[in-house]
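Here's what a typical entry looks like (Peptidase A1 domain-containing protein):
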Amino acid sequence: MEASLVLLCLCVFLASGGEGRSPAGTVLPLQVRVQEVELEAPAANRLRFRHNVSLTVPVAVGTPPQNVTMVLDTGSELSWLLCNGSYAPPLTPAFNASGSSSYGAVPCPSTACEWRGRDLPVPPFCDTPPSNACRVSLSYADASSADGVLATDTFLLTGGAPPVAVGAYFGCITSYSSTTATNSNGTGTDVSEAATGLLGMNRGTLSFVTQTGTRRFAYCIAPGEGPGVLLLGDDGGVAPPLNYTPLIEISQPLPYFDRVAYSVQLEGIRVGCALLPIPKSVLTPDHTGAGQTMVDSGTQFTFLLADAYAALKAEFTSQARLLLAPLGEPGFVFQGAFDACFRGPEARVAAASGLLPVVGLVLRGAEVAVSGEKLLYMVPGERRGEGGAEAVWCLTFGNSDMAGMSAYVIGHHHQQNVWVEYDLQNGRVGFAPARCDLATQRLGAGA
């Protein structure tokens, strides 16, 4: 959902596999090779990744293969790459389309241009004459946008035996803009750590999942910079016992409901043992589709609509009053949506984090429990007290309304040490607590 190009280079360990295939158990190196793509399900592959601000996967694309880095995003559909001729900051590798013999731009008009983008918010459209390019225009919740042409090329997944090449449509982006990109310190653009593009993993017809025929995939995100694992296809029995929640389907199109997102039903929110007094109507999509709950690997934190956020903020602050000192600055808002903030020395807050009340996102049939260090985020560059002895910390739940969103979003920060499975075959998402570093080791992907 967030498509910020400024990311830490996270080692990704990708496993792929189509419906009916089991993982080959092959361990991939630090990068994922994405090269040519046949329109069949790829063999089972695994890649290591490291988690910090965004989840990225190294990929090889084209013939001969070019190494690129792509954001892993279950909230987006069409994959895309910054292409040669686009705005690419210094040291940011752009994909050289003219250097790939397997690259093909989709002409307009064509069936692919007319029908392939039915699910995109802005369908592909014909460029103005004399160009015959099929153009795509994409925008994201973090205010970034990308424009370019619809194209095809080869994505190579090298973790299987032998490596699997799959051909896929993607956006060859020639114009990209972002007003919110930040570096690892959260203070501004760090072009040396920018990614080349985005790997769209939602349920739309143009997503990488749909194009490769993948009916199940899962990931386990380790805290900090620990290695994690991503599996496309059958997990081979390595997943822990999962609690599943059904995907929510709405047949008719609604203006604020994303029908190709991984949408689940939020039944309630608890803080410690206290179930917040939030009316069911606040947690359910309304007649416009506003209020859906999405599981999204492309958004860092979790966002709640205003009424639910206010209830959570009040209860959490009350229960944590003896552990955390309020920041005491009513005008302070982190990233435009986080205003439940505190102050304190790092050692003291770290010790208190283990005593904080667990926040549970209660889903239909499952629950995502957020505890300990995952509850607070130290705001980069903000110090208080004499000599800057105190840091500023904010609750890692944001106000959707303040962020300009009309939905609940469960971000990847709250999916750390959770095995998350997207089961498209059975229309459900599964969750289970897990030690993701150990899961990575069991799958043969060391740090």
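Confidence is low (pLDDT under 50) at residues 2-52, 180-193.

More examples are in the samples folder.
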